Amino acid sequence: MKGSAALPVFGTRLRRVRTAVRLKQDGLAELLGVDQATVSRWERGVQTPEADLQAKVFQTLLPYRSDDAALRRLVETSPECVHLVDEATHVCLAYSAVRARDWQVGQRDMLGISLWQFATEEIQKAEHELGASDWWSVVSPEPRLFETSQANYRDISISAGQILWERVYLSDGTPARLVSGRSHAA
Questions:
Q1: Phi-psi region of 72 (alpha: psi -120 to 50; beta: other; left: phi over 0)
Q2: Which of 115, 132, 135, 158 could link 151 by a cystine bridge, Cβ 3.0 to 4.6 Å?
Q3: Which pLDDT score, from 0 to 100, does residue 1 have?
Q4: Which residues does the UniProt record annotate as the domain HTH cro/C1-type (predicted)?
Q5: 103/85 Cα distance (integer angstroms)
Q6: How far apart are CA 51 and CA 147, in angstroms?
Q7: Regarding beta strands 157-158 and 82-86, do their DSSP bridges make them parallel or antiparallel, or are they unpaired?
Q8: Average pLDDT of the residues in 33-38
Q9: What does the alpha-carbon distance between residue 72 and residue 81 come to, in Å, rounded to a whole number?
Q10: Average pLDDT along the chain
């Protein structure tokens, strides 16, 4: 996430991930060198840290997470155009060969990279709209379907088409997002 824009609804994302990995606010505060009240303010949305500190917060939580090799393998071998991201950070966890061709990248090039920096205007808008919905407050929110435009970046290309977001959970309880898409060119 280094150098990328701050994520919308940071506090709610943080709370969901922190509780999923069963880490108390004061434990996270100690790891980050801040006080528990600061973590509480972040989670309530009273205070929002800069993007680089947001990245550090989620990086700090990584060692508490599980591997989920089976889920990654299912995504990677899917015949569909799909990818899996960490819901809080948009870090790419896995993607299919079809998605790799769509993005015009190698099968492992984008792993571990936050895809938020490549979000089209439509993806950013859809992400912001999640904050006004029940997406962050319910365990299994309704899938979200929307259209996105084409975008070309130095590292990745995004095809215009439909995007479907579905929440899944990693084995440690951390929410992830399965992203399916169908290009208008397909």
A1: alpha
A2: 158
A3: 43
A4: 14-65
A5: 15
A6: 27
A7: unpaired
A8: 96
A9: 14
A10: 90
Q: The sheet that has 161-169: what strands, in order across it?
A: 92-95, 82-86, 175-183, 161-169, 144-148
**What kind of fold does domain 10-64 have according to CATH?**
434 Repressor (Amino-terminal Domain) (1.10.260)
Residue 59, pLDDT score = 84
Six token digits for residue 8: 């919308």
Identify the CA nearest to 119 among candidates 145, 154, 70, 158. 158
User: Are the CB atoms for 75 and 94 separated by under 8 Å?
Assistant: yes
Confidence at residue 185, expressed as pLDDT on a 0 to 100 scale: 60
CA distance 128 to 63: 28
| pLDDT of residue 46 exceeding 50 | yes
* Gap between the terminal Cα atoms of the chain: 30
pTM over 0.85: no
Q: Alpha-carbon Rg of the chain, whole angstroms?
A: 16
For residues 150 and 157, give the distance between their C-alpha atoms in angstroms, rounded to a whole number: 8
Each domain of the chain, given as residue ranges in start order, spans 10-64, 69-183
Torsion angles phi and psi, residue 73, rounded to 5: -65, -40
Average pLDDT over residues 90-97: 95
